[in-house]
Amino acid sequence: MAAKLKDYQVENNQIKLVYESQIYFIKIIEAGVIQLFEADYKDYNSFAVEDNNFNSAELDFEVENKKGKLIITTAELIIEIKNDFKVDFYDLDHNPISKDYSKKRDPFIRRKSSNIAEEEGHKLQEELKNQPVEVLKEITAEEKFYGLGDRTGHLNKKGYSYQLWNTDDPSPHVESFEVLYKSIPFILGLKGDYAYGLFFDNTFRSYFDFGKENDDYFYYAAEGGSLNYYFINGPSAKKVIDSYTKLTGKTPLPQKWTLGNQQSRWSYHSRERVEEIADNFRKKDIPCDVIYLDIDYMDDYKVFTWDDNKFKNMKEMIENLHQKGFKVVTIIDPGVKKEKGYQVYDQCLENGFYLTDQDGIPYVNEVWPGECIFPDFINSDCRAWWGNNHQKLLEIGIDGIWNDMNEPASFNGPLPEDVRFDNDGQKMEHKEAHNIYGHLMSKSTYEGINKVSNKRPFVITRASYAGTQKYSTFWTGDNHSLWQHLRMALPMLMNMGLSGLSFSGTDIGGFGSDATAELLTRWYQASIFTPLFRNHSSIGSRDQEPWAFKQEVEEISKKYIKLRYKFIPYLYDLLWQGKKTGLPVMRPLFLHNQSDSNTYNLNDQFLAGENILMAPVVQQGQKYRKVYLPDGKWLDYWTGEEHQGNNYILKESPLDTLPMYIKKGSIIPNYEVQNYIGEKKMDELKLKIYPGEGDYLHYQDDGQSFAYREGEFNLYKFIQEENDQSYEVTLDLKKQRYDELYSSFKIEFFNTKIDEVRVDTQKIDFEKGSQSILFNIDGDFSKVELIKA
Ligand code: MIG
Fold first, then answer.
1. Which candidate, 160, 199, 202, 204, places its Cα nearest to that of 178?
2. Residue 404: is its pLDDT beyond 70?
3. What region holds the Glycoside hydrolase family 31 N-terminal domain (predicted)?
4. For residue 483, what is the enclosing H or E element?
5. Among 670, 605, 594, 597, which residue's Cα sits nearest to residue 634?
């Protein structure tokens, strides 16, 4: 307990608070972004906040001492600091946003008189113990909690508790799972309809209890380290996410092919099998961009090697695949096989880049290769060395790296908490390093690729910490082919998106267990707007390629994979946008409808960007599904039927139908379908225009290099307006620096009651369909007028 506030000093943009028994700091990072930490934290270098992208130089704030209460006023907030370092945040009208809980913890009583239940094998939930770092905040009745990365359960976490300790548990993930692979200690709170964020930047095992042990408070604790967290002001959730990703980093622009269809399997065992899979995609006219090689491509599971017997002339295989338009991604695990003469092992030993026990002896545990040592990713020299190892793979043409088992997972019991790491000269123990192991492995991989390749690195990781989005994309680990897991995928991916992890996806069809035909079909449909679009399945489970079931499944899957390829420019635009705003691709409906309480607990619908509403079928056998449409007017993607929002509708949804709605006033870019991204030179862009008022920014670049950072890109702004007698569509080419401009546009305008179309005053021909009219125009048009009938 800090006891009484004795004194304070303002030092630039931070206030030092001297309590009877503790010193704390409050740092004003921006008017709405406030860091709170205890003195011990001062010299700590965050692994998540590597350089904060705020300009704090000219911040204005006032500090006032009022009867033992310190009051800080910024341009957005009033912050009241009381004894015991209790801190309350108010808006400028003095409405509370978030307040520390002033009483003691008071958990519900777990009544049990003996161990009968445990003896029978029931595992009772454990009580939360008191921890060295604890924060309690008041919960008001209308509070909702989101974020926290890859948790099971629902979109809204209120009433549940979780732990952060990166964990590989292959049993089916259910609602009661407190841990998973990732640790993202960020939450987005909605108090009524006012959003705020809390980011607890501490890498030790931590606990979040969202009013489970007691309705009245939210509890955060960490097993070590010191108090350090950020309060992030809204009131919009969008602003909170923007600020959070200014701190921890925004998802960089990926290479465009990474948005294509990806096919994986543990494992495609041989060169012949890989080639057969690739050829099948082309033969069956199913678009595909990427084939993955899981652990069996390696020689004896030794990382940075490959098996020349199973994969004869690997380089040639990759060249052939490239010829056919496929990219190849290989898995790399952290465990290094203990084997003298194996170069990676020898170098790791020579350089002392391994984890050790307390006496400095290399720490050994078992993973796929048998006994392994583990590289120390906390150490920057080790990271650079590990990164360089990727050169061998890049030289034979590998296009991306898949990091698995980096929680780290181990077969011979977990790594003890006191295993030693070297934080560039300072000792660190496993209990502090665990949750950032995968994060720093991804960083090492990203930087290793970046050093030698001039393309945007593609990394995919299982374990992560806050900020890993700067280096890697994500998948949600070992799900199962269960309907529950398809349902869970949606809130999990939405919460990951809110937590900065925008480029994410699940194993389509489910990893463990056997998929059914219907499940795979619905999973493809639900995933067409997940940035990572990858079918993956476990060894021993039934084949899960789109053609592995009956013809109907193949046809429907193909239809939706092709639909995905049409929307590639829309997805790419969303990622480009996200690089500036931090907003994810897959969004919970409340992100754009924050005052609509019907959206706060919607687990099975999402928005792809702002314009497309997805309501995939995630129930076995369901032929009708209820869809909530928020404010505005929405058009059924398939029938063109217009629906009034703020309304529930029932959509007929046989197996080949994915309920999907477009917001009136949207302009949506589409590509022609291709076998793989880059197969066709896209010099024509299709624009789907849903009449109304609106505009749309479309981004175009080479899709692979960093030339865009030098300004080599084009930016098109399309604007539509409705007048009494006509509709108007204008093109404003905002920026033109990339030389492959579109030579034409194909416009599909969703209104058939049109008499005449004029492009820059010239009358042109158009085709009439059942819901829309179609016409082609040159790339340099500036205005289209559509005269109403
Ligand atoms: O424990 O490399 O989540 O995607 O196929 C299994 C084999 C290890 C776990 C990954 C999964 C991958 C599998 N790996």
1. 160
2. yes
3. 26-209
4. helix 483-498
5. 605
The token pair that represents 400 in the structure block: 């991306």
Q: Which amino acid appears at position 59 of this protein?
A: L
Residues 6+ away with beta carbon under 8 Å from 288:
260, 261, 262, 263, 278, 281, 326, 561, 675, 676
The residue whose CB lies within 8 Å of the most ligand 1 atoms, and thus the one to mutate among 302, 404, 460, is 404
Task: Express each pLDDT in 611-627 by its tens digit.
Answer: 999 999 999 999 999 99
Instruction: Give the DSSP H or E segment for 696.
Output: strand 694-700
Average pLDDT over residues 674-685: 97
| Atom of ligand 1 at shortest range from CA of 264 | 5
424 is catalytic: no
493 lines ligand 1 (CB under 6 A): no
Rg of the Cα trace of the chain? Answer: 27
Angle, CA of 753, 757 and 763, to the nearest 5°: 145
Of the candidate CATH numbers 3.10.20.30, 3.30.1490.20, 3.30.470.20, 2.60.40.1180, the domain formed by 683-788 belongs to: 2.60.40.1180
Closest CA to 744 of 754, 734, 757, 759: 759
Domain-wise residue ranges, the chain? 5-99, 136-248, 290-324+326-474, 586-663, 683-788
CATH architecture of residue range(s) 136-248: Sandwich (2.60)
Residue 115 has pLDDT above 90, yes or no: no
Q: Are 436 and 184 in contact (CB under 8 A)?
A: no
pTM across the whole model: 0.97
Residue 68, Cβ neighbours under 10 Å: how many? 10
C-alpha 442/C-alpha 459 separation (Å) is: 7
266 lines ligand 1 (CB under 6 A): yes
Nearest CA-CA partner of 185 in 493, 467, 403: 467
Measured CA to CA, the distance from residue 242 to residue 586 in angstroms comes to: 15
How many CB atoms sit inside 10 A of residue 774's CB?
13
CATH number of this structure's domain 586-663, picked from the four choices 2.60.40.1180, 1.10.275.10, 2.40.50.40, 3.40.220.10: 2.60.40.1180
User: What integer is the mean pLDDT of 630-635?
Assistant: 98
Alpha helices in 376-482 (DSSP H): 380-389, 391-395, 430-452
Contacts of 157 (CB under 8 A, 6+ apart): 145, 146, 147, 148, 151, 187, 208, 210, 495
Active site residue 404: yes
